[in-house]
Amino acid sequence: MYEKIQHLSKELDSLTAATVQETEELRIKWLGKKGYITVLFDEFKTIAADQKRSLGQSLNTLKNAAQEKIQVLRHATVQETVATSADYTPPGDPQLFGARHPISIVRNEIIEIFTRIGYTLAEGPEIEDDWHVFSALNFPPEHPARDMQDTFFVRQSDNAVVLRTHTSSVQVRVMESQRPPIRVICPGRVFRNEAVSARAHCIFHQVEGLYIDENVSFADLKQAVLYFAREMFGKETKIRLRPSYFPFTEPSAEVDVSCNICGGRGCNICKYTGWLEIMGCGMVDTNVLEANDIDSKKYTGFAFGMGIERVAMLKWQVRDLRLYFENDVRFLAQFTAVV
Ligand code: PHE
Known about the structure:
The protein is of the alpha+beta class.
């Protein structure tokens, strides 16, 4: 039996297989139910007890070597099969490139326009306290914007926690931590408790701006807004200011730009008025300056705020706001050409 084992281990060394099939045949021949090694183990049961120890050892060594050899052959033949069956001639799969979201494109454009004239960027938290969203901005306690109708409350109490309804809260944070001259723009996501429709959404994006210094006037505000409108909608754009009301500005105005689609002649985007509303603005109310420890006798300022979706809508004539939030690639892919 010892000779048989010796003989088989020599043979084992010289085994080769070209295919997976051949390897499988070798496995059956060596390790299968009637394979050489199984047969040897059967024979082993019948030999004298004093020989069992050393023979058992060599038999086990042979079995392990055979298993290892079959494994090596299997690995090599599988590799061979994969390599020879791969077809390298077909053209590659097209790579899909990501694109910026249209809201990001417009936000970046607005930021770029204002940073060119010295505004810096400020950001703040989306979950805010009552002070930063309302009280510091001169909202009286009973103001309807604080109502459940408009505001998402995280905690409703004397010290309410809310999802910010505008990024004016960031302007308050800037006034707390910086002294005039202040010139910032605050882009960000805001939340209002509104029924979702083509024209309104409970989430949208704003860019608000704040400029506080000595001798800042309403004429400066008009000029900044006109500059922005021309950069954003084209050199021929005109603006129109209509008196309005915000708790944090006095006087306040609503800004319209001449319709860039019909050139002011009237179309269904501007509802045949020739004008499109784009933002709210005004001179910072003295109460707001004082609430933030800024001397309202020495300093004046203006603020403005616009919805990014609204600007994007006017830029691309997208009529349904919901498209911006659905992330349908068929919609998003249309903006790939714009950097
Ligand atoms: N905060 C206002 C809004 O959310 C916009 C605004 C900002 C108006 C600054 C006037 C001045 O609608």
